[in-house]
Design a protein that fits this description.
single chain, alpha+beta, two-stranded antiparallel sheet, 34% helix, 9% strand
């Protein structure tokens, strides 16, 4: 991800309460690729991007356990409104 995408990811993680520090892979080159780490220290940090992605998916699966577009079984109720022929 780039710096703008990283800013959006950071804001989303904070809103969802998912821990992680979004930072550039190379601290000297902010225009390069960014990842999610467990700490801000470039010397000791560990890349947790894949773990954060899994936590993100789990949060949304909790909110809506049904996969999108899954057909419902059984009849569907609704209304038919005839055209106004005046």
């Amino acid at each position: 991800m780039n710096a703008e995408e990283a800013r959006q990811v950071d804001a989303t993680l904070r809103r969802l309460g998912i821990p992680g520090v979004v930072a550039p892979e190379d601290p000297e080159h902010a225009a390069g690729k960014w990842r999610v780490y467990d700490s801000p220290d470039p010397v000791t940090r560990k890349d947790i991007t894949s773990d954060v992605l899994a936590a993100f998916v789990a949060k949304f699966r909790e909110a809506n356990p049904e996969p999108p577009g899954k057909p419902r079984s059984g009849p569907t109720r609704g209304f038919i409104v005839p055209p106004n022929e005046g």
